[in-house]
Amino acid sequence: MLTNISNVLRACVQRNQVATVLISARTYADFTTEATFEIKKCDVHKLDEAPATQVVLTRDEGLQYYRIMQTIRRMELKADQLYKQKIIRGFCHLYDGQEACAVGIEAAINLTDHLITAYRAHGYTYTRGGTVKQIMAELTGRRGGIAKGKGGSMHMYCKNFYGGNGIVGAQVPLGAGVALACKYQGKNELCVCLYGDGAANQGQIFETYNMAALWKLPVIFICENNRYGMGTSVERAAASTDYYKRGEFIPGLRLDGMDFLCVREATRFAADHCRSGKGPILMELQTYRYHGHSMSDPGISYRTREEIQEVRSKSDPISLLKDRMLSNNMASVEELKDIDVEVRKEIEDAAQFATTDPEPPLEELCNHIFYNNPPIEVRGTNPWSKLKSVS
Amino acid sequence: MAAAVTRFFLRGAGSKVPNTGVSTRGHSSFGATLLKLSPSCNVRTKTQRRHAAHFTFQPDPVPTQYGPTQKMNLFQSITSALDNTLANDPTAVIFGEDVAFGGVFRCTVGLRDKYGKDRVFNTPLCEQGIVGFGIGVAVAGATAVAEIQFADYIFPAFDQIVNEAAKYRYRSGNLFDCGGLTIRAPWGCVGHGSLYHSQSPEAFFAHCPGVKIVIPRSPVQAKGLLLSCIADKNPCIFFEPKILYRAAVEQVPVEPYTIPLSQAEILQEGSDVTLVAWGTQVHVMREVANMAQEKLGVSCEVIDLQTILPWDTETVCKSVVKTGRLLISHEAPVTGGFAAEISSTVQEECFLNLEAPISRVCGYDTPFPHIFEPFYIPDKWKCFDAIKRMINY
């Protein structure tokens, strides 16, 4: 498991180790290297066992995950800023508030496992191995973007990460298909298939539940329930808000999606379930988005400022981890601050890159429509020269 | 060539966006802000210039035949049409994602409060369900106005529209129909909508006998045509050019009125080239007609097709008989676009009258691009160039 964790962190692990070593040299003996925490119990559906409620967190893990969550948070805040400056255009859905989900899930699966999500994809792109630079440059539509600057906010991809899907709920059947391939290839891999509480009402989700259970596919369906499908609260949109039970014949778990440890423990449990050949499992992560649905939704017309403030002050995923580490003497305020400073610098550098990197060349307009060799001509308006499509 | 393109974008053809009417206080919305940002770019930064509008909205003369008028933009004229419908038709209901709050483009603002939450209500995020449900509402005799949040999201409902709605009358031997169903959806490019908020899918539905497809060019047209669609005894798809929601402002009659479907409108008479378009592209065509007159001395006849299916072949063919040349322009990709159908019909009807091959100036055969939108759009320069070619043929 520890190797997995460091895999997740390969983007920043090196710098982190340096930091750790420096700090260790100074105060290593003073810190607790690991501690056991009591976490909230999961609600279960059709399961005899439940994920453990006592989990161990080591100091190194804590620091690493703190850094990742902080990176995602800062990246989203920067994106917010760039959007308001009209440097990022198009649609942009921010992930701040939900960091514990992406990080907790990634900590419990392998990088060789597969993951697919909807349009709120920046956090997952990062945990799956994308760099902040690539993500920011994609947001601004520049050459160095993770999808060559062609997709923008909703369309980000990297190895074993299938995006970044703009149409509500459309990624769920795809995820089951990926799981079928995993099963067929027999590599003991699984697919994590994410969707929101809004998408949970789409018909194709239920079609997918059926196929996944029928064929016992190694897929973890994860409903990130952030309480609002755009501007509509879950109570107004769903006849049953027990999203973890809506797979009916698929076992389910409901847990606190604001607590990184809860998410990690439950995902480990779910991954074991899948890998042991028992078929799909469903998880509902109860989480919260601080921003509106997208950049043009101020997010306060269908919920109160007080509600957002309360979540921020009482169950912020980053503060929660930070408090745990500090109160158990697993880290010092200073070293966490150092991490913050480093993260901020990384984000600033990435933003700098994303605003100065050139835009993709015009040829890119027509590339990658079909697989074709030799290049095909793409028909367009007749006055301009026809463009070649290369793939 | 690239330089020419760049020059055009640097011009920054800013159309005015008046902030009249409905306040976006409280529930501002995704679409609304999107629109606020796109057509008018006063702050001249590098990133904004390339998103300058590719057209200038040209209002029609104030209509006098329908009583008192009021200044409205396109989304307000839609609201006005829906308001009239709810007031006059006790069976009318309006539903869709977030419509109870006014919808992301503010088209249904205030209607829930005025007519009650049993008549204007939110649905879950399930397009297939929304349309299927709408068919049921309509087949039982009520008037259903369903909103799909973006035309790009209509595809989950494709089966319901094509197989259920369009064929209901035919397959039941006229025993059942869902003529009371109207599906509204924001449509077309908006400046920076990227792949899933910019498409123009009218051609997909034009292949389906049994549904009517209507696309207005202005607030006055929008209200009259929408009321016609709602009153029409066939299921209708009403696509609203979302870039015009705020950019287009006209004096719109307050009382209900209808504009006949399947009737194209000749906006400007001419003798040399017929220009056919619908929605936003009509305004590009008007500008092109002026350019052709000024720079080439070419007289263009501009036609707004308005109804895509069933379309007005007579008006178009008569015009081509007169001018001998036809240019059709739409934002959707050229291959299989509705321009192809028009072109084919016109060459059958007017073969001996044609002085030049029919021109289509349309989007590239690519997915709707993100940052390449300015290149992709069939703008006035591309259309102008096509006219030159036709004249010199």
Features:
heterodimer; A: alpha/beta; Rossmann fold; six-stranded mixed β-sheet; 13 helices; globular; B: 393 residues; alpha/beta; seven-stranded mixed β-sheet; five-stranded mixed β-sheet; 16 helices
Report on the structure:
The complex is a heterodimer of chains A (391) and B (393). In chain A, 42% of the residues lie in helices and 13% in strands. Chain A is an alpha/beta fold and 391 residues long. Chain A folds into two domains: 2-231 and 238-360, Rossmann fold; 362-391, no CATH class. Chain A has a six-stranded mixed beta sheet, with helices on both faces. In chain A, strands 1-3 form a two-stranded antiparallel ribbon. In chain A, helix 3 (59-84) runs antiparallel to helix 12, helix 4 (99-108) runs parallel beside helix 10 and helix 7 (171-185) packs parallel to helix 8 (203-214). Chain A is globular. The two termini of chain A are 38 Å apart. Helix content of chain B is 37%, strand content 18%. Chain B has helices at 2-11, 30-37, 46-49, 74-88, 111-115, 127-139, 158-165, 168-171, 202-206, 219-231, 244-247, 281-296, 313-323, 338-350, 373-376, 380-391; strands spanning 69-73, 92-96, 120-122, 143-147, 181-187, 212-214, 236-241, 249-253, 265-268, 273-277, 300-304, 307-309, 326-333, 359-363. In chain B, the strands form three sheets. A seven-stranded mixed beta sheet of chain B has the order 3-2-4-5-7-6-12. The radius of gyration of chain B is 20 Å and the shape is globular.
